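Task 17 of the worksheet. Students: predict the tertiary structure of the chain below and write it out as structure tokens. Keep your answer in the requested format; marks are given for formatting as well as content.
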Amino acid sequence: MTATTTSTDPSTPPSTARTKARTALRTGVTTTTVLALALAGVVLPTVSLPVPQAHAVAPDVEHVPVHGVDAGARHQKGALDDAVGDEHEAPAAAEAAKEVAPDGSTTTLPQGEPDEGALAALSERTTTQDFLVAGVTWDSSTSSEVTEVAVRMREDGRWSAWQALGLDGVTVDGGRAGTEPIVSTGADGVQARVRTADGTSPRGLQVDVVDPGTSRADAYVGSDAAPASSANAGTGFEIRPRIVTRAGWGADESLAGSWPETSKTLKAIYVHHTAGTNSYKESQSAALVRGIYAYHTKSRGWPDIGYQFLVDRYGNVFQGRQNARSDNPIGAQAGGYNTGTIGVSAMGNFDTAQPTSALLTGLSQVIGWKAYQYKLNAKGTTTLVTGSSTGSGTRAKPGATVKVPTVLMHKTTNETACPGRYLAAKMSSLRSSAEARRQAAIKKYGAVRWAVGAPTRTAPTSAQTPVQWNVRSTYTWKAVPGAIYYQVLYRDARWSSDMPSTNYWRILQAKNTSRSVTVNMKHGTSRDLVVRAISKDYHRGPMTTLVRTTTRILPQSWSLSSGWKKVEHKVYRGDVAYQTAKGGATLSLKSANQVRRVVVRGATNPADGKLQVLVGGKVRGTIDFAKPSDGDRIFTVTLSGQTDGTVTLRKVADGKKVRVVQVALTRW
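Model answer:
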């Protein structure tokens, strides 16, 4: 869609006038019809109409380009006024994040104000389509360091004050950098202001405004039934609140893509807020969630909405990320700390208004449920490791361990005003309320235990581990009583990269009913493959490791010195071997990571020679190929622990040949 740009500012925009006219027309027709029937003596029966069913709604996103500083806008009154929400107040001492040193001592992280930067872009006031959600985005590859973004919107013919938008450094391949979204009760005009460290405007800068459309069920915010108490208590789901599902708020699932990471456990719960209006109606809540979803997927390029849950001012709890009700999917609630945490976003701007009691109750219900489910003390503390997400204003450096409250604010770890000063003031009572819910659940249902057992695997063969010699292989497990299907997860990495932390997993198969999985692995990859059972109530069981394995590294990745030659014969696996008799000739794999075993497949003969195996410049073992003739023998050199560095096979100067067929580096 092409933006319509104008510097005019009518008191009643055409779109607003059309909306009022349509509303008046509908009201007039209805009133006239009822009055006519009443005068005619017709008595209308009282009936209970069925509640409309929600349906997927395709949103409409308009992109409004911003080209540097508009001269006319620069001289308008209020153009450079301070923005609401840009006061990055430091958390109180009890709320502040503390960096944990190796000796266990802690130091409160710096709480200084971020650099305002220089004015880089200021758009003119622009008429747009009607919208409920907006945000500012730019090319993720831009060299400009964005320090501040603010927008103001035209609502009911009047321009709002400038409102600061939090910067969000979470990006995905092919996605765009940008801000957190801002919500409105209905707007049809927007203006943006951007500051950067050096005053240069980011490439591809634009404001994205979202019309989330309407659903028949918007006026009837429905929710799934809360779980019923049963003899099968203590699963962690007994106190789950009623939740408006994705279908209930009209999610267009065609917008969702592959965001398969899930956290292994939960360590902390972030409290967020959305910028913008606090005066939306309950009938607008679902549309606001749809708008945020559309902004995250269509504007930012994310595979899904960033928050796991959202709570409106009426206490309604909305499911955000797919599977958030039954699993722990990684979202984008706090750059640098998204793994092992979830985000609960309060819908409103709590720099300008007090949270309602209904909203606080909704927050307490979600937090108390998750704290009970994952055995978290909602009033306690935990430690998080800072990730490398850039542009998220993390107070700690990447890799630093920080000590934080288990239930924390976005601004505890990141340079932001979120969740606003008035909600920040409620954090202590919110934690107490959530912890009281958890303690009551423990007293009534007992400590959480697994609702379904762990699968028993079929032991992998020697051809599958520690090296999976074929690119394609199948692994199996036994049926688990009570399971309706199984979830298969993995983590993997190339031989030259570290394995990802076990703090998160990628989902390979979400719903497996066959009790087997066939995997295709790229050459030179290590993989940790696990499975867990899912019960009829979608409760997860413990993980079982199916295999930890590695595939061979192709010769294209080998570094061969002079003296080697390629020989072909059907006796060799793959019909090819690399042969040398030159003393000191080397075959190297540079920059190998986390090597535990060096596995070499080769041909042998009583007249053949030896190879030394070096890792990180040190000799770790010697392979003797002087064995009975065999075209396919496997040799393994095991290290004392995982080691980084170049792996080298060096020919011993014995005048005898060696034939190397395949090489693999395992991590286990």
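Marker's comment: The domain at 472-550 is CATH 2.60.40 (Immunoglobulin-like). The chain has three domains: 60-103+115-215+224-445, 472-550, 555-666.
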